[in-house]
Amino acid sequence: MSLSPTTRKRLITTFFAVLCLAVGTIVGDRFLPFRGGGAPYRQACGEILFPVDMDFIPQTTPTGRRIITTEFEETGRGDDHRFSCMVLGDGEILLWARVEVTSLDEQAWRDQIEERRLLPGRERPLDIVINRAPEGLEGKDYTALSGDSSAALRLPCRLPGDQNVHLGVTVTAPGASDGDSDEQRLAIAGIASRVASHSILKTGCLRPAPAPDDSPEFAS
After folding, report:
1. How many domains does the chain have?
2. In a shared domain, residues 9 and 116
3. Which of 58, 63, 79, 160 is in Cβ range 3.0-4.6 Å of 101 for a Cys bridge?
4. Under DSSP, is residue 190 helix (H, G, I), strand (E, B) or coil?
5. From CA 123, how far away is CA 110, in angstroms rounded?
């Protein structure tokens, strides 16, 4: 069956319109930046990161937009509490937040952090505002450190039975764009503080309990 020139022209026009739409969808999905200020990260870590500005992690690469996935696990209470949240881009870790209950003293905890390479680069102390603290521990026995694309907190927690432990909180962001900038360091420290506040409740620390500020500063 032969087609009239007009019909052939319409078919060709329709074909190219569909082709352009398909290519535009693929290119737009893979290469255009995410809209909404980092929306793919918002659901990570049980929505703990929902209000956090994650723009310090590049959302695109030279080959296109990252495919974002997350892995989140939280188990136990008391000294059995564990928290782990990973944000991955194209299968590579962009950010990893971890919490574990520890009975190590400060120096042993620092040694463990160094051995695990959880605080790389230049170490700087952080000033975290504690709104509440266990009786007898006000203003002391806290450790807060910033590294390149990383942060580590050690906070006291009193469990039922008058058991004194600490929460060890670490956040590493190997996918960050400029790990040694002050702004990025404090952004990552803020994530560590948010995770710590969450785990203080989930662990079952007795009140009054420490409450680190979500906007820490560098210690003077």
Report:
1. 2
2. no
3. 79
4. helix
5. 11
